[in-house]
Amino acid sequence: MPNAEQLLADALAAARGTDVGQAEHALDQLVVADGPAVDKALLARLVRGLGRLWPRGWQPVDLDRIATRRLAPRSARLLRDGLAAQRREQPGPVPPWFDEQLAELGARWDGDAGWLDRRAEGDRITALRDAVDGLVLVETLPPIAVLRPPPGGPAAAPRSAAPAGGSRMLDRVRALLAKAESTTFPAEAEALTGKAQELMARHSLDVALLDATAERPDQPAGVRLGTDAPYAAAKALLIQEVAAANRCESVWSDDLGFATVLGFPADLAAVELLHTSLLVQATAAMLRGRAERHTGHGRAERHAGSGRAERRTGGGRRTKGYDESFLNAFALRIGERLRAATAATDREAAEERGDDRLLPVLAARSDAVRERVDQLFPGVTKHRLQVRDAEGWASGTSAADRASLDAGAPARRAVRPGH
After folding, report:
1. What is the mean pLDDT of residues 370-378?
2. Is residue 169 a contact partner of residue 203, using CB atoms and an 8 Å limit?
3. In this structure, how many other beta carbons lie within 10 angstroms of the beta carbon of residue 61?
4. CA distance 144 to 377
5. Which residue did the predictor score with more confidence, 341 or 126?
6. How far apart are alpha carbons 78 and 62 in whole angstroms?
7. CA dist., res. 193 & res. 171, Å (int)
């Protein structure tokens, strides 16, 4: 009988194919093989596979995001714990951010002996299938942009420190946005979001001027934000618009379920905070609009009599079209208003400081971000939006007006709606 390594290789090859019967047969061979030997082979291959991901741009949170999206929950949890096993054997220096991500994910490892049986919950066959599925994912992920020096390589040199008040400012912003998300009064949400945006914009300007005189100035960095279904494209558009308003650039990887945002650290923090809050506000407004729309349709049905069945036909498609149009319109309108607010803050700050340092510094930082985008994503393309539901588009625009800052002059946007 083949050894455990060969049986595992056969099971992985079969799982990648299209023959379900062959995949089940290969899994059966693993089930009847020597359990400790199979577990050892699985763990060794998983650790090797995970270690190969880091130089290819992947980070623990990226892997967990795509595993949660593509795999069964138990398989995703198995990979999460496998991260802790791999960390134990990681050669070379390990940057602090890597361990912080493992802690955030709750990755844990409680010993090699019997590791799969402890996760089997009495069902070894399913546990083996979960492990094989997880390994297939790990070994077939493509290279992505390297945003941070990976573990095992040269440690990143420390950059200029953030202003002492930076963390306190972010705490204030989080508190303001949390209140904006929870209030049921649009005017209050607008005021709270506006104050948060003002704080972030002014903090960004302070950091930019301080960094311009630093001996070792910061360089553009990057973060990845998830764009899960439903309405992944609309969520990616919201990220793009918030990024543009905060001097960042966003590139969406549809097949991998995330958008990569590139910019300077203070601006990236603003994008993450504001995007998260606005997505909550947009979703809540969309659901309210959908409910009001359906209530109106229900009244029409009661008066229409024989037309009731016809109105119900394709209701799911109508709802999907409404939701997509709502979220797309919300994102574009938010982008216009945030960019106008950022420009106003820049002008006000330049006047207050009474010098010509600010605008050249901001222009240089924007150039640096665009150069970084060109380096990491030389083949990026753009696409046009399609408006599928005029009512959803109008409602989304109105919701953005209520949820964001006062309207300003319209600004250029990279993606325009088309019919």
Report:
1. 94
2. yes
3. 18
4. 10
5. 126
6. 15
7. 14
* All residues at 6 or more sequence positions from 212 whose CB lies less than 8 Å from its CB, including other chains: 357, 361, 364
Q: Considering just the CA atoms, what is the radius of gyration of the chain in Å?
A: 25
Q: Hey, what's the torsion of the CAs at 289, 290, 293, 294, to 10 degrees? A: -150
Q: Provide the angle, in degrees to the nearest 10, between the axes of the packed helices 358-376 and 315-353.
A: 140
Chain centre to alpha carbon of residue 266: 18
Query: From the CB of residue 60, how many other CB atoms can be counted at a distance below 10 Å?
Result: 27
For residue 212, the one-letter residue type is A
Strand pairing category for 258-263 and 221-226: antiparallel
Q: What pLDDT sits at residue 312?
A: 45
- 226 three-state secondary structure: strand
User: How buried is residue 145: exposed, middle or buried, by Cβ count under 10 Å (0-12/13-18/19+)?
Assistant: middle
β-pair partners for 417 = 385
| The pLDDT of residue 150 | 93
Residues 6+ apart with CB under 8 A from 237: 327, 328, 331, 332, 385, 415
Q: Which of 73-77, 211-215, 290-294 bottoms out in mean pLDDT, i.e. has the lowest?
A: 290-294
Supply the DSSP symbol for 114: T
AA letter at 18: T
End-to-end CA distance of the chain: 63
pLDDT of residue 397: 60
- Could you read off the pLDDT of 148-160 as tens digits, one per residue? 999 987 754 334 4
Strands (E), 45-195: none
Average pLDDT (349-370) is 86
Q: Which amino acid is residue 298, in one-letter code?
A: G
Residue by residue, DSSP assigns 237-266 as HHHHHHHHHTT-EEEEEGGGTEEEEEE-HH
**Model confidence at 305: pLDDT above 90:** no
Judge whether 137 and 67 are in contact, CB under 8 Å: yes
User: At a CB cut-off of 8 Å and minimum separation 6, what does 57 contact?
Assistant: 143, 144, 145, 146, 147, 150
Do strands 249-253 and 417-418 pair parallel, antiparallel, or not at all (unpaired)? unpaired
Would you say residue 345 has pLDDT above 90? no
Asked whether the predicted pLDDT for residue 400 surpasses 80, the reply is no
Token pair, residue 20, equals 């379900």
Percent of the chain with pLDDT over 90: 57
Question: What is the reported pLDDT for 293?
Answer: 73
